[in-house]
Amino acid sequence: MRSIPTGADTDYGLDPARLLENMQADAEAGLVPTDVCATVGTTSSNAVDPVGAVADAAALFGAWVHVDAAYAGSACICPELRHHLDGVERTDSVSVSPHKWLLIWLDPLGARRRADDGVPAQRRERRRRRHGPQGHAGGRGRRFRGLKLWMVMRTYGATKLREHIRSDIAMARVFEDSVRADGRFKVVAPTNFALVCFRIKPRVNNEDACREKTVS
């Protein structure tokens, strides 16, 4: 697996030229580039990879392209944000997690976990055999998760969901302005959606402080 460094010069998004160099080097070394993962709204920096350019580079090697849009993919229901997915039609798979921004709730697994807490594995297995595949905690098959999404979409509709996302983004802009106005903090990455990445500014330069201590 190749982890390609990013930086402020590309707003922490993947540089297609650097991606191409790495894939070419692997191919020349006798390896076969098979998969590339582009991200739209990554967790650490809210960065957006250039999906179309990544797909073009991967196509030269016949590599599969997956787009991880778990967080920010939902935002692309807003027309003004769809450019973040430009070129997605040339990719092979996309993942979006509706529970992150489309008002979908996660499965309540706590009850099942509490029921199994402190029970030895052998006893749990005997209980499953005695009570059948459903065991003591109800059905263990796949939940009908699509129903939750359908209910939210039918209840709110596209208009209200867009209002929800735009409201979050507007609040993030207000917060970002407050951070920038405070000299104690620094915004360290572009605020593409509703995530503001910032850090506290150190009062002294750590390297200089260490150098002074070494000299003394």
UniProtKB/TrEMBL annotation:
Modification sites for N6-(pyridoxal phosphate)lysine: K100
Region (Disordered): 116-141
InterPro entries in the record: Aromatic_deC, PyrdxlP-dep_de-COase, PyrdxlP-dep_Trfase, PyrdxlP-dep_Trfase_major
Keyword field: Decarboxylase, Lyase, Pyridoxal phosphate
GO cellular component, one term: cytoplasm
Cofactor or coenzyme needed: pyridoxal 5'-phosphate
Gene3D superfamilies, alphabetized: 3.90.1150.170, Type I PLP-dependent aspartate aminotransferase-like (Major domain) (3.40.640.10)
Keyword set includes Cell membrane: no
Any single GO BP term: carboxylic acid metabolic process
SUPFAM superfamilies hit by this protein: PLP-dependent transferases
An MF annotation (GO) of this entry: carboxy-lyase activity
Keyword match ATP-binding: no
Composition bias, Basic residues: 124-141
Family statement drawn from the similarity comment of this UniProt entry: Belongs to the group II decarboxylase family.
Protein's recorded name: Aromatic-L-amino-acid decarboxylase
Lineage start: Eukaryota, Viridiplantae, Streptophyta, Embryophyta, Tracheophyta
